Every structure is written in structure tokens, then in C-alpha cells.
Amino acid sequence: MIIDNIEIKGVTCDSRKVKEGYAFVALIGEKNDGNNYIDEAIQKGASIIFTEKDIEIKTVPVKKVENARRKLAELCNTFYEYPTEKLTVIGVTGTNGKTTTTHLIYHILKSNGISTGLIGTLNTKINDKEYKNQLTTPDAEVIYAYLHKMVKEKVQVVVLEVSSHGLKNERVWGIEFDIAVHTNIERDHLYFHKTLEDYIASKKKLFDHLSPGKIGIINLDDDGGVKLLDKNNHILVITYGLSGKATITASSIDTGLTTSFTFCLQRGLTTLSGVEIEAFEYPFSIDIIGKHNIYNTLAAITCGLLLDIPIEAMAKSLKKFKNVPRRMDIIYQGEYTIIDDFCHNPASYETVFESIQSMPYKNLHIINAIRGNRGIEINYEIAEIMKQWQSILKAETIVITESVDYTEPLDVVGKKERDIFIEVLSRENISFTYEKKLKDSIKNIMPKLGKGDILLLLGAQGMNHGAEVCMRYLRARNTYEKAPHTIGYQDIIPRH
User: Fold this and answer.
1) What percent of the chain has pLDDT over 70?
2) Residue 490: per-residue pLDDT
3) DSSP state of 254
4) What percentage of the chain has pLDDT greater than the value 90?
5) What is the CATH architecture assignment of 329-491?
6) Full strand arrangement of the beta sheet holding 337-341
7) Which end of the chain is more exposed for a tag (fewer CB within 10 A), N or C?
8) How far apart are the first and last CA of the chain?
């Protein structure tokens, strides 16, 4: 790449990564200002600087830009030779369900012989290779580097988990999406977006930037879905949901420790290759829990149809799908059952409790990790949800914890966050205990579990190591039986 007759050998916004001949883009972040690291970047060999500020430097060219984050994405796109022009790209956005839906799509495609890549919360996958991510939607320079690598490794389709942070911060600017999927929109990340309107506007960007004729897949049962389509008459829209008005819906639903339903295409659709598919029905059975996962599966199957995968082949491949870690994940099933979920907002707690309501159990036990460093409001709302459902589910034991023994610095629970949680639960005289350490929470509750009981491990980053601690306890007590997922939890650090 040549800029002003200068050969650019790399692009970065991180001064620590700068090498000789790199372009350095100074981003203004929530805590750090990249402009403070321009001198360091130049010392390391940066040959050109991009910034939103008026800065004069005589040793290297400085380009003032209106939007440095967008410029970073543009530079990376050019440097890596526009990788998404050579890929079919599916983007999935929403408050909840992004991770499960992207993994379902990835599984369907890969199981049916399509070379597939995935970029999301848990990891990046390029066919059978896996790489760790720190963010749901990584920075533009990381995304474009992965996309370039996927092109080199002959990937045909890439599935991206697209967060509101990623959209607002222009991390996916310039990516040519062929299909955009909406799962749902609930109140979340308001510590970052400040208002629900800004949150929805950020999600809407994914659909606003679709080229004419590209496809938007919208959850019709979610009130936010219609808002994403405002002034987007240039795209093709497919709706899904349990409403009879949706293009794609489900019937004969049966949920429990497994889920079965009949997939119903109520009106014909045209695939990306131009094949016409007439209305039909087909039965599915999948080993994942909860009504919400019917929505996720409907969206994934729809993507498969648009890519010409036969419905029979998808039904066969989904029977082998193993649940995504920390998403209503049955980590142990023996005399009693232990389920792990990355609850991080009120809607996700509602979803878990609704799913548990349809399951048989003798006694229900809950360990919940308080949401750290996300404010009082969200913890107040989560505690209210837990209080309301306690009377419905008749939870035998509730333990709340700060997880001080496992929480990373960015996720430490503040005193006010802890106090509001305790205050809400105390108002109704709900029986609960508070533990500072996650390890103590699990150690104290495990002896209480009896035949037919369910233990829920709930919470975001504070519960990331809950499954690992449980398994260690079970092994020590010689009660461990092989579970669907027993390794790797120490490496799972979901971010926004």
C-alpha cells in the first residue's frame, strides 16, 4: 500500500505494535488518548500518522482525519486488499443470542462441507484452527488481519458476532456483509451508550450499511427489529419468530433438557445463488436448552437455506451440535444437574428462568456472580428479576458472590453494586447468603445438592471459572461423571 509515495508496511492503533514503515492511527479512547503515544510510534519507525487533532510534526507526515476509527478500518481494508470482496459474510447482532447463533451457523456450514470462519466472543475459528479473542468484535486491525488470513486459507463464508461497541466504534466499517441477522434488543451496555436510543442506533448501523439487495434477517417477535429497518428499503428482509406473521416460524415445540420443533417456511424465499425455495415444514431436534434457542436455531437454519444447504442435511448436522460454553450449558448431569450461563443483563436472566420453569427438578439452587464495574442500575434490575422469579421457581438456595478470587481488574464488583443487590433481595425477606469468594460459594452449596436437583451458575465475567471450580470439587469428591464440556473454562473470558 502506497500513501503519499510512502510504502506502508503495516497499520496499527497500538504504539507497542509499530514497526518500521507502519502507519499509526491515534484513537481517542474512553481512558487513553492515542495522541499521547505518537512520539513513541515515530521512535519505533512509524512513517505516517493519522489523527483527529491539529498536530504538527516535521519528521513524518501527519494527516488530520474526521473519524480516526473509521480511517483505521479503511486503511486496514486497503492494506489487506479488501478481503470481504472475496468472502460471503454473515453478521449477527443483538443483545442476547449472538454467540449461540454464530456458532450454530458455523456448525451447519462446516458440517456441510463449506470452508468457514468465525469471529466472536469466545474465539476466532478458521476451519479447525482456533484463536483467542479479548472482545466480542475485535478492533478493526485484528478483524481485517483475520479476514485476510481466511482468504489465504480458502475460507468461503465467515460469520461475525457484531456487538454494539464494535458498530459504534467503527470496528466493522468497510466490511461487505451479505446477510445481517438481528436476534433481539434489550436494555444493556447503557454504561457505554448512555441511552437506549443510542444503543439501538448502533445496532442499526449493521443494516444501514448493507448494500442494495443484501439480506436482513429480523426477529419479528422483538419490538426492536422494526426499528432496525427504518429507511432501509434497499435491502431484502426475511422475518422469523414464533408469531404466525413471520416468514419463518416453528410449531410442535417441545423444550426440556433437549429441544425439538418443526421448522416452518411459510412463504417462499430466494437463496443467494438465485434458487427459489417453496414453503415447507421439517422437524428438528437439538441438544440445547430453552425456548430462546429456538429463535437462535431458526435464524441459523435460515442462513443455511440462503446458502443452498438442504434442510435434511441441516437437521442431521444439528443433532450433533454441542452447546456453546456458558450458554445454558449442562456441565454436569448425574444424580443432579449443573447448568452454567453467562447471564449479563436482565433479559438474559429472564430467559434462563423461563427455561428452568419448563424443566422438572426437586430443588433449585442458584449461585449468582454480581455484575462488576457495570453500575448500580443493571445490578438493581438483575436483583429485581431474581427476586420476582424466586417465588415462581421456589429456589431452595440463593448465593450471591463478588468472585474476588477470580475476577479480573476490569470486572471487580464495587461496594455500591454489591450493596444494591443485597438491599433488593433483603426487602422481600428472601433467604440468601453472600460470599466474597466464588470458591467458597461453590464449596458450601455442593453438599446440599440431592437427587433431582438443579444448580444454576449464573453471571457474567464473575462466573467465568464457576464450571472449572465445580468440576474440581466433583473430582475431589469422586462423584465426577463425564460432562459435555469439562475443559477450557479457564480460557473463556467473554467481553462486550
Assistant:
1) 95
2) 35
3) E
4) 83
5) Alpha-Beta Complex (3.90)
6) 329-333, 337-341, 454-458, 364-369, 395-401, 433-435
7) N
8) 32
